[in-house]
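Hi V.,

You were right to ask for the full record rather than a summary. Here it is.
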Amino acid sequence: MKHKLTFFFFCLSFSIITKVSAQQNFHSYSAETIVGDTISLSNYYGKKVMVVNTASFCGYTPQFAQLEQLYLQYQSNNFEIIGFPCNNFGNQDPNSDSLINEFCTNNYNVTFQMMSRIDIVAGDTAPVFKWLQRSDLNGVQDVSVSWNFNKFLIDEQGNWVGHYFSQTLPNDPAIVNWILSPPPDLTSVTNKDKFNHVTLTYSPNKISIIGNFAESNNTNVFIYDLSGKQLFSYINQTNSSLQSLNINELKEGLYFAQIISGNFITTKKFVVR
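Predicted structure:
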């Protein structure tokens, strides 16, 4: 097998075979805000989140302005940004939380959530950044943060979605497309009794999508990459098993599978490793 395909998200209407044991997600953690309040990250359930390790005196510090603009533009799309100041890279954020907060407010009018300064590479790495960087915790990918203004994307269910290094601008088209992408597992079912369930499984060379399609003459499947680009489409399939996607054609990464059958619409995420 060229790739191991692992599905990491499911809902009641789906039964999924998976090789990944239960992982903690982003919402399992808590953190201290820049004004000293402890909050549970489960407060962000139902929202897309970008997590950024920030610094006040870095060549990338002007990205604060782009982050704030992105936040103001897409906050109404259930999108949030969380900034974690860090002094581990070039000693570029050495001040106290109060001075960091003053700097962000006075210079960049930051209104998105800023957290208390943390360590990322020291022995006492903040737990949430251990999760962000370790595949054995997040279930998706190992990442090594090596400088300020790395960007992590977290979905509405608290799942690890993607990572971008410092040089990627906050308003990069791939990030914006992700913000605007439909949430996973949005279902609109008016004939649920006729469409009982769908099962997604994998084998060495294909994804199998099996369900009770007998009540619909139109079962369409679309595969998208993280940026929202459509890669494959399967139209008007009436047999009970759709098995024509060769996963060897997919690079490692995260993808969306959208299934439409009659009045049933759902979007599922899957990872190719």
